[in-house]
Protein backbone atom coordinates (compact mmCIF):
# COMPACT_ATOMS: atom_id res chain seq x y z
CA UNK A 1 0.00 0.00 0.00
CA UNK A 2 1.01 3.59 -0.61
CA UNK A 3 0.26 5.29 2.70
CA UNK A 4 0.46 8.97 3.61
CA UNK A 5 0.48 10.25 7.18
CA UNK A 6 -0.42 13.90 7.65
CA UNK A 7 1.41 15.26 10.68
CA UNK A 8 4.87 14.41 12.01
CA UNK A 9 3.98 14.80 15.67
CA UNK A 10 3.92 12.06 18.26
CA UNK A 11 1.10 9.98 16.76
CA UNK A 12 2.08 10.68 13.16
CA UNK A 13 5.72 9.67 13.59
CA UNK A 14 4.95 6.45 15.42
CA UNK A 15 2.25 5.54 12.90
CA UNK A 16 4.55 6.32 9.94
CA UNK A 17 7.49 4.34 11.28
CA UNK A 18 5.44 1.31 12.30
CA UNK A 19 3.46 1.13 9.05
CA UNK A 20 6.75 1.27 7.14
CA UNK A 21 8.02 -1.53 9.36
CA UNK A 22 5.00 -3.57 8.23
CA UNK A 23 6.14 -3.17 4.62
CA UNK A 24 4.00 -0.29 3.35
CA UNK A 25 5.41 2.58 1.31
CA UNK A 26 4.88 5.46 3.72
CA UNK A 27 5.17 9.20 3.14
CA UNK A 28 4.87 11.48 6.16
CA UNK A 29 4.09 15.14 5.51
CA UNK A 30 4.43 18.11 7.83
CA UNK A 31 4.44 21.87 7.30
CA UNK A 32 7.48 22.38 9.56
CA UNK A 33 10.46 22.25 7.19
CA UNK A 34 13.04 22.10 10.00
CA UNK A 35 11.36 19.03 11.47
CA UNK A 36 11.18 17.31 8.08
CA UNK A 37 14.88 18.02 7.44
CA UNK A 38 15.74 16.43 10.78
CA UNK A 39 13.62 13.37 10.03
CA UNK A 40 15.12 12.95 6.58
CA UNK A 41 18.48 12.57 8.36
CA UNK A 42 17.03 9.85 10.61
CA UNK A 43 16.75 11.99 13.75
CA UNK A 44 13.49 12.04 15.69
CA UNK A 45 12.32 15.38 17.14
CA UNK A 46 10.65 13.48 20.01
CA UNK A 47 12.00 10.91 22.43
CA UNK A 48 10.23 7.56 22.23
CA UNK A 49 12.08 4.32 23.01
CA UNK A 50 12.81 2.38 19.83
CA UNK A 51 11.42 4.99 17.44
CA UNK A 52 14.66 6.38 16.03
CA UNK A 53 15.98 2.90 15.19
CA UNK A 54 12.86 2.10 13.16
CA UNK A 55 13.04 5.49 11.44
CA UNK A 56 16.66 4.93 10.41
CA UNK A 57 16.01 1.39 9.21
CA UNK A 58 13.06 2.29 7.01
CA UNK A 59 14.67 5.42 5.63
CA UNK A 60 17.61 3.26 4.54
CA UNK A 61 15.42 0.64 2.86
CA UNK A 62 13.32 3.43 1.27
CA UNK A 63 10.05 2.31 2.86
CA UNK A 64 9.68 5.66 4.62
CA UNK A 65 9.83 9.18 3.22
CA UNK A 66 9.34 12.66 4.69
CA UNK A 67 8.20 15.72 2.78
CA UNK A 68 6.59 19.13 2.98
CA UNK A 69 5.07 18.75 -0.52
CA UNK A 70 1.28 18.11 -0.56
CA UNK A 71 1.43 16.94 -4.18
CA UNK A 72 4.12 14.37 -3.38
CA UNK A 73 2.27 13.22 -0.28
CA UNK A 74 -1.33 12.96 -1.43
CA UNK A 75 -1.46 12.47 -5.20
CA UNK A 76 -0.74 8.73 -5.27
CA UNK A 77 -1.89 7.61 -1.82
CA UNK A 78 -4.15 4.60 -1.30
CA UNK A 79 -4.75 5.49 2.37
CA UNK A 80 -4.23 8.82 4.12
CA UNK A 81 -3.96 8.99 7.91
CA UNK A 82 -4.73 12.33 9.52
CA UNK A 83 -2.57 12.79 12.63
CA UNK A 84 -2.51 16.57 13.05
CA UNK A 85 -2.88 18.29 16.41
CA UNK A 86 -6.21 19.22 17.98
CA UNK A 87 -5.05 21.64 20.69
CA UNK A 88 -7.22 22.96 23.46
CA UNK A 89 -9.27 26.13 23.08
CA UNK A 90 -9.65 28.52 26.01
CA UNK A 91 -13.01 26.96 26.91
CA UNK A 92 -11.58 23.42 26.91
CA UNK A 93 -13.02 22.42 23.54
CA UNK A 94 -10.85 21.00 20.75
CA UNK A 95 -9.40 23.45 18.24
CA UNK A 96 -10.01 21.93 14.79
CA UNK A 97 -8.14 24.48 12.67
CA UNK A 98 -5.49 21.95 11.58
CA UNK A 99 -8.19 19.41 10.77
CA UNK A 100 -9.84 21.98 8.49
CA UNK A 101 -6.56 22.85 6.77
CA UNK A 102 -5.51 19.25 6.11
CA UNK A 103 -8.99 18.32 4.85
CA UNK A 104 -8.93 21.16 2.31
CA UNK A 105 -5.39 20.22 1.26
CA UNK A 106 -6.21 16.54 0.80
CA UNK A 107 -9.24 17.41 -1.35
CA UNK A 108 -7.12 19.66 -3.57
CA UNK A 109 -4.23 17.24 -4.19
CA UNK A 110 -5.69 13.71 -4.39
CA UNK A 111 -5.67 12.17 -7.87
CA UNK A 112 -7.27 8.76 -7.20
CA UNK A 113 -9.84 7.06 -4.98
CA UNK A 114 -8.63 7.07 -1.39
CA UNK A 115 -9.57 6.19 2.18
CA UNK A 116 -8.92 8.90 4.76
CA UNK A 117 -8.44 7.62 8.32
CA UNK A 118 -8.50 10.05 11.24
CA UNK A 119 -6.02 9.22 14.00
CA UNK A 120 -6.32 12.66 15.61
CA UNK A 121 -8.54 12.81 18.67
CA UNK A 122 -11.57 14.77 17.52
CA UNK A 123 -15.03 15.59 18.90
CA UNK A 124 -17.99 13.49 17.84
CA UNK A 125 -19.13 14.52 14.38
CA UNK A 126 -15.72 15.71 13.15
CA UNK A 127 -15.18 12.85 10.69
CA UNK A 128 -18.48 13.68 9.05
CA UNK A 129 -17.24 17.28 8.75
CA UNK A 130 -14.00 16.04 7.15
CA UNK A 131 -16.07 14.03 4.67
CA UNK A 132 -18.16 17.10 3.82
CA UNK A 133 -15.08 19.31 3.29
CA UNK A 134 -13.38 16.79 1.02
CA UNK A 135 -16.57 15.99 -0.92
CA UNK A 136 -17.17 19.68 -1.62
CA UNK A 137 -13.68 20.28 -3.03
CA UNK A 138 -12.35 17.03 -4.50
CA UNK A 139 -12.45 16.21 -8.23
CA UNK A 140 -15.99 14.91 -8.95
CA UNK A 141 -14.80 11.61 -10.44
CA UNK A 142 -12.96 10.48 -7.28
CA UNK A 143 -14.41 8.49 -4.39
CA UNK A 144 -13.28 9.27 -0.84
CA UNK A 145 -14.35 7.45 2.32
CA UNK A 146 -13.51 8.88 5.75
CA UNK A 147 -12.88 6.46 8.63
CA UNK A 148 -12.62 7.17 12.36
CA UNK A 149 -9.55 5.19 13.47
CA UNK A 150 -8.50 6.46 16.92
CA UNK A 151 -5.07 5.64 18.37
CA UNK A 152 -4.41 4.17 21.79
CA UNK A 153 -0.64 4.65 22.09
CA UNK A 154 0.99 5.22 25.47
CA UNK A 155 3.92 7.62 25.44
CA UNK A 156 7.02 5.65 26.41
CA UNK A 157 5.53 2.39 25.10
CA UNK A 158 4.09 3.47 21.74
CA UNK A 159 6.03 1.06 19.53
CA UNK A 160 4.94 -1.90 21.65
CA UNK A 161 1.36 -0.64 21.70
CA UNK A 162 1.23 -0.28 17.92
CA UNK A 163 2.24 -3.89 17.36
CA UNK A 164 0.62 -5.43 20.46
CA UNK A 165 -2.39 -3.23 21.21
CA UNK A 166 -5.57 -4.35 22.94
CA UNK A 167 -7.83 -3.45 19.99
CA UNK A 168 -8.09 -1.56 16.73
CA UNK A 169 -11.24 0.52 16.28
CA UNK A 170 -12.55 1.11 12.76
CA UNK A 171 -15.44 3.55 12.55
CA UNK A 172 -17.31 3.77 9.25
CA UNK A 173 -20.86 3.48 7.99
CA UNK A 174 -19.72 1.60 4.85
CA UNK A 175 -19.22 -2.16 5.13
CA UNK A 176 -16.81 -2.35 2.15
CA UNK A 177 -14.55 0.30 3.67
CA UNK A 178 -14.64 -1.48 7.03
CA UNK A 179 -13.66 -4.75 5.37
CA UNK A 180 -10.81 -3.07 3.50
CA UNK A 181 -9.39 -1.53 6.68
CA UNK A 182 -9.78 -4.84 8.50
CA UNK A 183 -7.58 -6.50 5.88
CA UNK A 184 -5.10 -3.63 6.12
CA UNK A 185 -4.64 -4.21 9.87
CA UNK A 186 -4.88 -8.02 9.76
CA UNK A 187 -1.07 -8.61 9.85
CA UNK A 188 -0.94 -7.06 13.35
CA UNK A 189 -3.13 -9.88 14.72
CA UNK A 190 -4.85 -7.45 17.09
CA UNK A 191 -8.60 -7.73 17.81
CA UNK A 192 -10.50 -5.44 15.44
CA UNK A 193 -13.74 -3.70 16.37
CA UNK A 194 -15.87 -2.31 13.55
CA UNK A 195 -18.43 0.30 14.51
CA UNK A 196 -20.13 3.46 13.27
CA UNK A 197 -18.15 6.69 12.95
CA UNK A 198 -19.58 8.52 15.95
CA UNK A 199 -19.16 5.58 18.31
CA UNK A 200 -15.51 5.26 17.25
CA UNK A 201 -14.94 8.94 18.00
CA UNK A 202 -16.56 8.58 21.42
CA UNK A 203 -14.60 5.41 22.30
CA UNK A 204 -11.36 7.41 22.34
CA UNK A 205 -12.73 10.10 24.66
CA UNK A 206 -14.50 7.59 26.89
CA UNK A 207 -11.35 5.46 27.28
CA UNK A 208 -9.19 8.40 28.31
CA UNK A 209 -11.87 9.76 30.63
CA UNK A 210 -12.21 6.40 32.38
CA UNK A 211 -8.45 6.01 32.85
CA UNK A 212 -8.19 9.57 34.17
CA UNK A 213 -11.02 8.74 36.58
CA UNK A 214 -9.11 5.72 37.91
CA UNK A 215 -6.06 7.92 38.54
CA UNK A 216 -8.01 10.59 40.41
CA UNK A 217 -9.91 7.90 42.31
CA UNK A 218 -6.75 6.26 43.62
CA UNK A 219 -5.24 9.64 44.50
CA UNK A 220 -8.31 10.56 46.54
CA UNK A 221 -8.07 7.16 48.23
CA UNK A 222 -4.38 7.86 48.93
CA UNK A 223 -5.27 11.04 50.79
CA UNK A 224 -7.84 9.14 52.89
CA UNK A 225 -5.34 6.34 53.56
CA UNK A 226 -2.80 8.87 54.82
CA UNK A 227 -5.35 10.27 57.27
CA UNK A 228 -6.49 6.93 58.65
CA UNK A 229 -3.07 5.24 58.76
CA UNK A 230 -3.59 2.78 55.90
CA UNK A 231 -1.15 2.09 53.05
CA UNK A 232 -2.41 3.08 49.60
CA UNK A 233 -0.12 0.49 48.00
CA UNK A 234 -1.74 -2.31 49.98
CA UNK A 235 -5.20 -0.93 49.26
CA UNK A 236 -4.49 -0.57 45.53
CA UNK A 237 -3.12 -4.11 45.34
CA UNK A 238 -6.11 -5.46 47.23
CA UNK A 239 -8.75 -3.85 45.05
CA UNK A 240 -6.74 -4.54 41.89
CA UNK A 241 -6.98 -8.27 42.55
CA UNK A 242 -10.65 -7.95 41.65
CA UNK A 243 -10.77 -8.70 37.91
CA UNK A 244 -13.59 -6.19 37.50
CA UNK A 245 -11.20 -3.45 38.66
CA UNK A 246 -7.69 -4.57 37.63
CA UNK A 247 -4.30 -3.15 38.63
CA UNK A 248 -3.73 -0.69 35.79
CA UNK A 249 -3.81 3.05 36.61
CA UNK A 250 -4.10 2.44 40.35
CA UNK A 251 -0.71 3.89 41.29
CA UNK A 252 -1.01 6.85 43.61
CA UNK A 253 1.00 9.93 42.76
CA UNK A 254 0.69 13.56 41.77
CA UNK A 255 -1.77 13.11 38.95
CA UNK A 256 -1.92 12.65 35.22
CA UNK A 257 -0.44 14.91 32.55
CA UNK A 258 0.75 14.76 28.97
CA UNK A 259 -0.96 15.56 25.69
CA UNK A 260 -4.06 13.35 26.05
CA UNK A 261 -5.75 13.03 29.43
CA UNK A 262 -5.89 16.73 30.40
CA UNK A 263 -7.02 17.86 26.95
CA UNK A 264 -9.47 15.03 26.32
CA UNK A 265 -11.16 15.16 29.72
CA UNK A 266 -11.77 18.90 29.36
CA UNK A 267 -13.00 18.45 25.78
CA UNK A 268 -15.48 15.79 26.90
CA UNK A 269 -16.77 18.05 29.68
CA UNK A 270 -17.19 20.82 27.12
CA UNK A 271 -18.89 18.47 24.66
CA UNK A 272 -21.32 17.35 27.35
CA UNK A 273 -22.02 20.97 28.22
CA UNK A 274 -22.88 21.70 24.60
CA UNK A 275 -25.89 19.40 25.08
CA UNK A 276 -26.76 21.08 28.39
CA UNK A 277 -25.69 18.02 30.38
CA UNK A 278 -23.05 18.56 33.05
CA UNK A 279 -20.48 15.78 33.32
CA UNK A 280 -20.12 16.19 37.07
CA UNK A 281 -18.01 13.08 37.64
CA UNK A 282 -15.40 14.17 35.10
CA UNK A 283 -15.40 17.70 36.47
CA UNK A 284 -14.48 16.21 39.85
CA UNK A 285 -11.75 14.09 38.23
CA UNK A 286 -10.17 17.23 36.75
CA UNK A 287 -10.42 19.14 40.04
CA UNK A 288 -8.80 16.29 41.98
CA UNK A 289 -5.96 16.10 39.47
CA UNK A 290 -5.32 19.84 39.62
CA UNK A 291 -5.21 19.74 43.41
CA UNK A 292 -2.97 16.68 43.45
CA UNK A 293 -0.28 18.42 41.41
CA UNK A 294 0.13 21.04 44.12
CA UNK A 295 0.40 18.48 46.93
CA UNK A 296 4.23 18.15 46.93
CA UNK A 297 4.76 21.87 47.49
CA UNK A 298 2.25 21.82 50.34
CA UNK A 299 4.13 18.88 51.90
CA UNK A 300 7.42 20.73 51.45
CA UNK A 301 6.10 23.77 53.31
CA UNK A 302 4.69 21.59 56.08
CA UNK A 303 8.06 19.87 56.44
CA UNK A 304 10.58 22.74 56.38
CA UNK A 305 8.43 25.85 56.71
CA UNK A 306 9.16 28.82 54.48
CA UNK A 307 10.75 27.96 51.13
CA UNK A 308 12.22 31.44 50.70
CA UNK A 309 15.86 31.08 49.62
CA UNK A 310 15.81 27.29 50.09
CA UNK A 311 17.51 25.15 47.45
CA UNK A 312 15.07 22.57 46.10
CA UNK A 313 16.22 19.65 43.97
CA UNK A 314 13.37 18.79 41.59
CA UNK A 315 13.86 15.27 40.26
CA UNK A 316 12.06 14.79 36.96
CA UNK A 317 10.53 17.21 34.46
CA UNK A 318 8.67 14.92 32.02
CA UNK A 319 5.03 14.14 32.81
CA UNK A 320 6.01 10.45 32.96
CA UNK A 321 9.13 8.34 32.55
CA UNK A 322 10.50 7.34 29.12
CA UNK A 323 9.31 10.48 27.35
CA UNK A 324 10.54 14.03 26.87
CA UNK A 325 6.97 15.36 26.92
CA UNK A 326 6.37 18.10 29.51
CA UNK A 327 2.88 19.07 28.36
CA UNK A 328 0.64 19.38 31.42
CA UNK A 329 3.46 17.90 33.51
CA UNK A 330 3.00 18.16 37.27
CA UNK A 331 6.65 19.21 37.42
CA UNK A 332 5.88 22.46 35.60
CA UNK A 333 3.09 23.29 38.06
CA UNK A 334 5.40 22.46 40.96
CA UNK A 335 8.23 24.64 39.62
CA UNK A 336 5.93 27.64 39.25
CA UNK A 337 4.69 27.24 42.82
CA UNK A 338 8.22 26.79 44.18
CA UNK A 339 9.38 29.96 42.43
CA UNK A 340 6.37 31.87 43.77
CA UNK A 341 7.41 30.72 47.25
CA UNK A 342 10.92 32.11 46.72
CA UNK A 343 12.73 28.78 46.37
CA UNK A 344 15.90 28.28 44.34
CA UNK A 345 15.28 25.30 42.04
CA UNK A 346 17.70 22.92 40.36
CA UNK A 347 15.88 20.43 38.14
CA UNK A 348 17.15 17.04 37.00
CA UNK A 349 15.86 15.11 34.00
CA UNK A 350 17.71 12.80 31.60
CA UNK A 351 15.69 13.74 28.50
CA UNK A 352 13.14 16.54 28.95
CA UNK A 353 15.29 19.57 29.81
CA UNK A 354 15.11 21.23 26.34
CA UNK A 355 11.30 21.06 26.31
CA UNK A 356 11.03 22.27 29.90
CA UNK A 357 13.38 25.17 29.21
CA UNK A 358 11.04 26.41 26.47
CA UNK A 359 8.32 26.80 29.12
CA UNK A 360 10.24 27.76 32.27
CA UNK A 361 13.17 29.55 30.67
CA UNK A 362 16.20 30.33 32.80
CA UNK A 363 14.30 30.91 36.04
CA UNK A 364 15.77 27.64 37.36
CA UNK A 365 18.96 25.63 36.89
CA UNK A 366 18.97 22.39 34.90
CA UNK A 367 21.18 19.33 35.08
CA UNK A 368 21.34 15.82 33.66
CA UNK A 369 23.21 14.65 36.77
CA UNK A 370 21.06 13.67 39.77
CA UNK A 371 23.92 14.17 42.21
CA UNK A 372 24.51 17.70 40.95
CA UNK A 373 20.85 18.54 41.54
CA UNK A 374 21.01 17.14 45.08
CA UNK A 375 24.27 18.84 46.04
CA UNK A 376 23.67 21.07 49.09
CA UNK A 377 19.90 20.94 48.57
CA UNK A 378 17.60 21.67 51.50
CA UNK A 379 14.92 19.38 50.11
CA UNK A 380 14.45 16.95 47.21
CA UNK A 381 11.12 16.64 45.43
CA UNK A 382 10.46 13.70 43.08
CA UNK A 383 8.08 14.52 40.22
CA UNK A 384 8.83 11.77 37.66
CA UNK A 385 9.53 8.10 38.34
CA UNK A 386 12.54 7.71 36.05
CA UNK A 387 14.52 4.50 36.58
CA UNK A 388 17.56 6.68 37.26
CA UNK A 389 15.71 8.06 40.28
CA UNK A 390 14.19 4.77 41.45
CA UNK A 391 17.57 3.04 41.31
CA UNK A 392 19.56 5.86 42.92
CA UNK A 393 21.39 4.55 46.01
CA UNK A 394 19.67 6.09 49.00
CA UNK A 395 23.07 6.96 50.49
CA UNK A 396 23.32 9.73 47.89
CA UNK A 397 20.63 11.73 49.69
CA UNK A 398 22.74 11.52 52.85
CA UNK A 399 26.06 12.42 51.25
CA UNK A 400 24.94 15.23 48.94
CA UNK A 401 22.10 17.12 50.63
CA UNK A 402 22.34 19.59 53.50
CA UNK A 403 19.77 17.45 55.25
CA UNK A 404 18.17 14.34 53.66
CA UNK A 405 14.55 15.43 53.23
CA UNK A 406 12.62 13.84 50.36
CA UNK A 407 9.08 14.56 49.15
CA UNK A 408 8.30 11.65 46.83
CA UNK A 409 5.39 12.45 44.51
CA UNK A 410 5.67 9.08 42.75
CA UNK A 411 6.23 6.63 45.62
CA UNK A 412 9.53 5.53 44.07
CA UNK A 413 11.03 3.82 47.11
CA UNK A 414 9.75 0.94 49.27
CA UNK A 415 9.22 2.10 52.83
CA UNK A 416 11.19 -0.83 54.22
CA UNK A 417 14.27 0.45 52.37
CA UNK A 418 13.81 4.05 53.46
CA UNK A 419 13.51 2.93 57.09
CA UNK A 420 17.15 1.81 57.00
CA UNK A 421 18.38 5.38 56.50
CA UNK A 422 18.03 8.63 58.47
CA UNK A 423 15.99 10.26 55.72
CA UNK A 424 12.93 12.41 56.34
CA UNK A 425 10.60 10.97 53.74
CA UNK A 426 7.05 11.90 52.76
CA UNK A 427 5.22 10.15 49.94
CA UNK A 428 1.64 9.79 48.67
CA UNK A 429 -0.89 7.83 50.71
CA UNK A 430 1.77 6.17 52.91
CA UNK A 431 3.10 6.88 56.41
CA UNK A 432 5.64 9.66 56.79
CA UNK A 433 9.12 8.53 57.83
CA UNK A 434 10.57 8.59 60.34
CA UNK A 435 7.61 7.99 62.59
CA UNK A 436 7.59 7.33 66.32
CA UNK A 437 8.10 3.59 65.83
CA UNK A 438 11.10 3.90 63.53
CA UNK A 439 14.70 3.28 64.60
CA UNK A 440 17.57 3.68 62.15
CA UNK A 441 20.13 0.92 61.85
What structural keywords apply?
single chain; 441 residues; alpha/beta; six-stranded parallel sheet; 19 helices; 14 strands
Show the helix and strand layout:
Layout: E1 2-6, H1 10-21, E2 25-29, H2 33-40, H3 51-60, E3 64-67, H4 70-74, E4 79-82, H5 97-109, E5 114-118, H6 126-137, E6 144-148, H7 158-164, E7 168-171, H8 175-185, E8 192-195, H9 197-228, H10 232-240, H11 261-274, H12 280-293, H13 295-304, E9 311-315, H14 330-340, E10 344-348, H15 353-360, E11 365-367, H16 370-374, E12 379-382, H17 387-390, H18 395-400, E13 405-408, H19 415-418, E14 424-426
Parallel strand pairs: 1-2, 1-4, 2-3, 4-5, 5-6, 7-8, 9-10, 9-12, 10-11, 12-13, 13-14
Helix pairs in contact: 1-3, 5-6, 9-11, 9-12, 11-12
Characterise the protein shown here.
With 441 residues, this protein is an alpha/beta fold. Helix content is 44%, strand content 14%. The chain has 19 helices and 14 strands. The strands form 3 sheets. Strands 3-2-1-4-5-6 form a 6-stranded parallel β-sheet, sandwiched between helices. A 6-stranded parallel β-sheet has the order 11-10-9-12-13-14. It has a two-stranded parallel sheet with strand order 7-8. Helix 1 (10-21) crosses helix 3 (51-60), helix 9 (197-228) crosses helix 11 (261-274) and helix 11 runs antiparallel to helix 12 (280-293). The longest helix is centred in the middle third of the chain and has 32 residues, at 197-228. It starts with a strand and ends in a 15-residue tail after the last strand.
Amino acid sequence: MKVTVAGAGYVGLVTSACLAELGHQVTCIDIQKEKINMLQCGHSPIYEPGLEAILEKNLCNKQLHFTTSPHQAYSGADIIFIAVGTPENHDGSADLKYIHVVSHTIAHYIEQDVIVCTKSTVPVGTNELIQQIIESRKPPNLQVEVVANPEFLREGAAIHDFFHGDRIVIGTNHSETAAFMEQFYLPLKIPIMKTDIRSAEMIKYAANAFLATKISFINEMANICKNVGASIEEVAYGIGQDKRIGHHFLKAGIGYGGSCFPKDTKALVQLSGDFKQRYELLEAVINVNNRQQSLPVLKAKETIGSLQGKKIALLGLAFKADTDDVRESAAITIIKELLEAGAVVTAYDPIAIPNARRIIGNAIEYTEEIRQALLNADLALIATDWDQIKHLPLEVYLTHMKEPIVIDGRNCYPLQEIRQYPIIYRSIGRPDLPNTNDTFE
